[in-house]
Amino acid sequence: MTQLKEKELFQVIQSVVQAVNMTVKIKQDDSGINMSYNFIGDYVGFDAKRLVEARNELMLPTSLEIYVKIMTLHELGHAVDRQALQASLPRTIEIFTMKKQHALKEIYRQEQLLAMLIEEHEMNIQFEQTAWENAWMLNHTHHLVPEKDFDYIKQHSLATYQRLYEQDLQAYHHLLNQQMVQLV
Fold first, then answer.
1. Taking a C-beta distance cutoff of 8 angstroms, is the pair 72, 17 a contact?
2. Which end of the chain is flanked by fewer CB atoms within 10 Å, N or C?
3. Average pLDDT of 43-56?
């Protein structure tokens, strides 16, 4: 990724932040995550290389500028919901700590641990849906991107969270069924 491209992406993100009259900081990082909102530091982070890769993974062609604008609106949607994100921090820390203390195999073998993963998915999905609703309101007010592109990127993004949730939910039900069989 060239310095020029990173600067251009930064400018696109900054233009959206300014257009919606928000004061969130923007930070370039190499996290491997295309964009994220850090509610503790109150900033939007972006990985320029991953942004380009993620846009290229889409089935329907979308310009990089439109994609970045939509993702920025989404991250700003999280910023609008910052108080709820902050309120979830104690439980998020508990789940994070549990994941650090137990091997993945162990988590998938113990009902109460796997239930915590399911809870984390449900929290994440709710935060994602709320962020997309907030992003839609920002776009509806400021008319930054076409609605059809917005809807496509939203559905694509939410599908990732939903797919992971459904996989773990299936594992959870499988575990419960195994326990029921053992009781019989």
1. yes
2. C
3. 96
Q: How confident is the model at residue 4 (pLDDT cuts 50, 70, 90)?
A: low
Closest CA to 128 of 88, 87, 157, 86: 157
The tokens describing 131, both together, are 């962020």
Distance CA 129, CA 123 (A): 10
DSSP assignment of 93-141: HHHHHHHHHS-HHHHTT-HHHHHHHHHHHHHHHHHHHHHHHHHHHHHHH
The pLDDT value given to residue 181: 77
- Return the H-helix or E-strand segment holding 25: strand 25-28
**Are the beta carbons of 43 and 26 closer than 8 angstroms?**
yes
The H helix count followed by the E strand count for the chain is 8, 3
Strand partners, 27: 45
What's the N-to-C CA distance of the chain in angstroms?
Answer: 59
b/e per residue 63-92 (b: at least 16 CB within 10 A): eeebbbbbbbbbbbbbbbbeeebeebeeee
- Tokens encoding 4: 């020029």
DSSP structure string for 27-40: EE--SS-SEEEETT
